[in-house]
């Protein structure tokens, strides 16, 4: 499993808007990404699954891809390419989507 651990930057946590933005970005990677928090796991391509985890701002989460079950987006991808996609997703989670200038970050 290739993972990244990140502190959620959105001051209000992963509520509807940041969860939807993140889920859309995950879908665009074509990878089967999981999001883990407090022993629970969610499909990171589902905003509802993400919101169900109840992740508050400043909490730490882990995103990961099992190379053996990485999905269509990983068919020809190397471990480095998958890692690079996870790095981009981790950077998204570290942003504060509730900030005034957040629209410019997306």
TrEMBL record:
Localization per record: Cytoplasm
Record key words, sorted: Cytoplasm, Phosphotransferase system
Any Pfam family the entry gives: PTS-HPr
GO cellular component: cytoplasm
Coiled-coil annotated spans: none
Annotated ranges, domain HPr: 1-100
GO biological process: phosphoenolpyruvate-dependent sugar phosphotransferase system
Major location (coarse): cytoplasm
Domain of life: Bacteria
Gene3D superfamilies reported for this sequence: HPr-like (3.30.1340.10)
Spans traversing the lipid bilayer: none
Function: General (non sugar-specific) component of the phosphoenolpyruvate-dependent sugar phosphotransferase system (sugar PTS). This major carbohydrate active-transport system catalyzes the phosphorylation of incoming sugar substrates concomitantly with their translocation across the cell membrane. The phosphoryl group from phosphoenolpyruvate (PEP) is transferred to the phosphoryl carrier protein HPr by enzyme I. Phospho-HPr then transfers it to the PTS EIIA domain.
Protein name per its UniProtKB record: Phosphocarrier protein HPr
Native organism taxonomy: Bacteria, Bacillati, Actinomycetota, Actinomycetes, Bifidobacteriales
